């Protein structure tokens, strides 16, 4: 029991870390708890930090004390280098912690003592983690310094509480509640400023792409799972708005998809359902190419054999396939093989991109009629599919990407189906790591989702105002 809670809470803390990294050093010590908005609409919180001295020697002992932690640190160093993550996760984990502390306060003393000691250990381990990352990162990062200071002061406060009585727990809870309030305010502020409302196309396309937000190594915790995808339902069924899905593998085959009730359970790897697309001697509905989308609880994907587009209804667990006229298996995207059909969903519906022999390998865009599950209209682009790294749709406009260098990706081409107009553009964005196989826009939250070398990555978008 104790062990379980410890692991759980530790992972909660590590999730919390990147979001706190958004806190900035501006107004250091002013006592302000106000939030402000960064240049990409991200939340920047101003934090009050109590004056404390740091017992470096003790922390160093701590650092070497946990081998498990060190492994996690390796994962999280790269993750934290982006210094951003969903605010909502931090809020969830904080409210979870706060709730636990509330339970404590009303519980019997013996239970309190145990929990209190646990909390101390967890905070110490977390601080050690942050210390290690701090040295691994460029220490001039003020956002990271702020995160570190926040955790450090929290730990000091807890450590200063020599006993574990109810009033002390009250103090700790107060600290968490304060932080929670700040972040909530920040989140509210953030909602006012950004883009056109969800679902609206009253904008002129992408202006800018935010920094990669690296959430987590995939749910299989397998670095060899470079092929996969993740995201949210692009048109969620009522009651499934917070659902996430994930599929991953060490090859380009698609054999399984898992569903998670919320971001929190995705990150803690507690799926509520896992669908197998292959059961030996029973059925083989496997896909290929990792360019699927989930829409109304259906997985739309490239069927492996025979080559077709497939719709796997995750509600009924039934599969349906349709041949895409003229689509070829000869032209994959630049990074990976077998990416012949790329599904995309946007404000206007469901799309599939591919190439045909007739088109000499240039990209063809098809609109899928969701009722009949057929390609009802096609557009011919002028770009060669094999030079493209991926593509996605926003408001009826196709965006195609290519690689610039190991750190940089670029949207170099758009095709507007509402005007039958193509454009060569340059919208560059930072890659987390060089290799990725999955990139899609989700109209339900206006974010890009990428499966990058086994990691879940998202990007916030800033649209041009009309
Ligand atoms: C905190 O999160 C864990 C993991 O999902 C959950 O089991 C627990 O019930 C949550 N606690 C509260 C008080 O929300
Ligand atoms: C650290 O930050 C400085 C100043 O921002 C920058 O010049 C330097 O290249 C960075 N070093 C690394 C290793 O990122
Ligand atoms: C998926 O299956 C459910 C349950 O049978 C059904 O209600 C729904 O219409 C199906 N969706 C599609 C897109 O076929
Ligand atoms: C493909 O190549 C053929 C022969 O060069 C040409 O006639 C045809 O127009 C090309 N198709 C496209 C879509 O570029």
From TrEMBL:
Residues 200-465 form the Olfactomedin-like domain. PANTHER family: OLFACTOMEDIN-4, OLFACTOMEDIN-RELATED. The keyword Secreted applies. It holds the Pfam family OLF. It comes from the Eukaryota. One of its GO terms (cellular component) is extracellular space. This is Olfactomedin-4. Residues 1-21 form the signal peptide. One of its GO terms (biological process) is signal transduction. It comes from Danio rerio. It is found in: Secreted. SMART domains: OLF. Keywords: Secreted, Signal. InterPro entries: Olfac-like_dom, Olfactomedin-like_domain.
